[in-house]
Amino acid sequence: MTAPTTINALKVLEAGRLAITQESEALSHLAASLDENFTRAVELLSERNSRVIVSGIGKSGHIARKIAATFASVGQPAFFVHPAEASHGDLGMITPDDRLLLLSHSGETAELKPILDYSKRFHIPLVAITAKENSNLASVADVALCYPSVPEACPMGLAPTTSTTMMLGLGDALAIGTLHIRSFSPTDFRTFHPGGNLGKQLSRVRDFMHTDDRLPLVPVGTLMQECLIKMSYFGFGCVAVINTDGQMAGVITDGDLRRHMHSGLLNDPVELVMNPTPTMISADILMAEALAIMQEKTITSLFISINNKPIGILHIHDCLRAGII
Fold it and tell me: Does the predicted TM-score (pTM) go above 0.85?
């Protein structure tokens, strides 16, 4: 190795931007190259009750691990098997009901041979991701996804850069394809992501709303002096006005009080002050959606209803409690 030289910041920036540009252009070529083989691969990998076994070695192995994790996160059971460990007993992890997804840039990776032989012996469907359509891997695969032959972003053309980016892009595309086939929903997503910020963003209103004796309600005909006591007691800055059937007749907020302020306000019935067309939401929507509605309407509380009957209330502080602000 030669001694380090003084860094030329402009050249470093130029090199970094060029690498990203080259990889971006490669992904564009990859997207344009997708054909019926991609559809066949998605259908094969998403067959019900099957698992996706992903494998590769070296940089392809690192990409394979990430692809397996992405499949699992969108509801398609998947895991990574190291090809070297496969020939020392880990082939027993793979069953005839599984689907194989093997990654190799050259398509001639010797370490994958035990898995290839095993797949043929037990008739396990195989999808290949490779750059070489005439390779051994592509020829034995049930579906071969061959990404375009473009230069690596490495200026020496040696370090896997552009090629691994395209592998990763193909893996993500396959996972998103299975997501569509399975009609994967935000509720399903939260099932697999209960922790961290994703879990918070996918919390439901029903998990945080206030109900029963924490619900500020007054019947039609109530005088405003009693309504104000209710508003102060519950501390949400609003009350729901209900009719004799328990259905929502309107809502009174702090803003309505200011808009209707006059000397005889306390003796007015709530019908004269309430907003008869309040915004209401379902208990099943995401907390993130409820927060978006509050921000759009510039309000701090939302009533939750079923068949126009209030069953709960959500305050913006509950969004803080859910960790989504």
Answer: no
